[in-house]
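#structure-requests
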Amino acid sequence: MVARARELVSALRAPHIVPSPNIWHWPAVYEAENRAQDVHGAVWRVLEPLADWTGDVVDVGCGSGFHLPRFAERARSVVGVEPHGPLVEQARARVAGLPITVLPGSAQALPLADGSADVVHARTAYFFGPGCEPGLREADRVLRPGGSLVIVDLDAARPPYGRWLRADIPSYDAPAVDAFFEAQGFQRHRVATVWRFPDRETLVSVLRIEFSAAVAARAAAEVDGLEFTVGYRVLARTKPAGLIL
């Protein structure tokens, strides 16, 4: 996630998509990472009251589609949007036979009609603070009045994961990011989660795709066992009834 954040923050300043080094280059390890995350479902409990998950849901930066079946359990329709072609194909294979559509596209140019969604969800993808305004505008364009944009991102203030994140990205200004989203009208919810791995090899492999070699080694040395705490920042805002884009 930190590696993905670092590259996608750069992408916000560029006219093209910048490769995400973790899931793009290590999809099998990233799959293991997804399975290890939030083992107690804390993020999902916070998300539940923030939006109408029974309507039309869009998952931006859906990757290999890990969360799409979860949305489809309740939603009327689910669309995953992903810029990387191989991940689009992996997501389509994952959801084959389910009422889910996976489309190639970016947060800045969603392949969806105006007012076609009740929820736009993004998890550790694109929406990292200042610079993501084009994606915010696109989300508002595709949302119906009263629809919700929900963003799940890492909380750099929560140790130990946040400490490792800051070591790898010392320029990351967490208060400035919080202030940016507050100015954009988002409500913020901080969530503590547990990541639990089946063995040390998987844990270390995940750390290695998320952090620089030095920080990954330090993090692995600090973890005694098969789990550690990761904080998330859940952001949500509702599209006003009178907003026209």
